[in-house]
Design brief:
With 298 residues, the protein is of the alpha/beta class. Helix content is 39%, strand content 15%. The two termini are 20 Å apart.
């Protein structure tokens, strides 16, 4: 596992928030930036106080991930942090800057994974709503090259939880990324249990990540979606994350923030589905999903 303080054994990660953000900036979220180190530390401390051990920050290149701040936050909070490289949807970037970076994406991703002062441990990409646009295809191709060069896992933002199988086909069939190296995020937003089951059967990870934000039409189905995967024999494919993307969503403001994963969801998982499932979802599965046999890029 590649953390911002160096590589650690996956077993050392403990309870994991599999998708969240300490820092994030986007023109699509103007005025709602996550850019306060003190608030980030408070959030990490609250997560740690409830038994949290690791946070995976999915903020990719060019979105204010502030990698230079993460080692100190990890040391002060006692929480492992995994940073991300990769690219989000095109709307999150200045068009001119995006054009400039397109031709060097694989090298950019590989550099952030292997030689940067603070190294990333995840490649983050994104799909579009119910389809894959040219941007998504280009970034996915670069992410696959970076994966094959380094062994890093690939996390996918699914817009509205859609196009999961399209992304899986693109990464795994076209670009030969092993399904077990792919984490498909936001599937709670599209609670089609057949799609969830197909993803799990393929060997990829199903990430339910978003209780820090309101998805009123689907939030109430989260436990049912998890139970359906467990009943289908796939408790080993499920991940949970908070996905805090605005300052207002933090527990230090008006939202549930990172702590809710452990103060709200974990007790329900243990009570309604089982302690063994909670352990798999929060500890065992992320240790496997975010681990990598790190390779030196050729």
């Amino acid at each position: 596992m590649r953390t911002v303080l160096g590589d650690v054994e996956p077993a050392a990660l403990g309870v994991c928030d599999a998708h969240d953000h300490l820092f994030l900036r986007s023109p699509a979220l103007a005025g709602q930036e996550l850019d306060d180190p003190a608030a980030a530390l408070t959030e990490l401390a609250a997560f740690a106080a409830l038994g949290g051990g690791t946070v995976i920050q999915w903020t990719p290149w060019g979105m204010g991930g502030r990698h230079q701040e993460l080692p100190a936050l990890s040391r002060r909070s006692g929480v492992h942090i995994v940073a991300a490289t990769g690219l989000h949807q095109a709307k999150h970037y200045d068009p001119e800057r995006l054009r400039d970076v397109y031709e060097r994406l694989p090298e950019l991703f590989i550099g952030e994974l292997t030689t940067a002062p603070v190294r990333a441990g995840l490649i983050k990409i994104a799909g579009s709503y119910h389809h894959l646009d040219d941007h998504a295809r280009r970034v996915a191709a670069a992410a696959a090259r970076a994966h094959h060069a380094t062994g890093a896992p690939i996390g996918v933002h699914l817009e509205g939880g859609t196009a999961a199988l399209d992304l899986l086909d693109l990464l795994c069939d076209t670009h030969r990324v092993p399904p077990g190296r792919v984490i498909l995020g936001h599937l709670h937003r599209f609670p089609d249990t057949r799609v969830h089951r197909a993803v799990a059967e393929a060997g990829a990870y199903v990430a339910f990540d978003g209780p820090s934000r309101a998805h009123h039409q689907t939030d109430w189905r989260l436990l049912d979606s998890i139970a359906a995967l467990v009943d289908a024999g796939h408790p080993d494919r499920i991940l949970l994350g908070g996905d805090t993307v605005t300052a207002a969503a933090r527990s230090t403001a008006d939202g549930p923030g990172m702590p809710f994963l452990l103060s709200g969801l974990r007790p329900r998982l243990e009570r309604e589905i089982g302690g063994d499932v909670a352990t798999a979802v929060l500890i065992t599965n992320p240790a496997r999903a975010f681990a990598a046999d790190w390779r030196t890029a050729a």
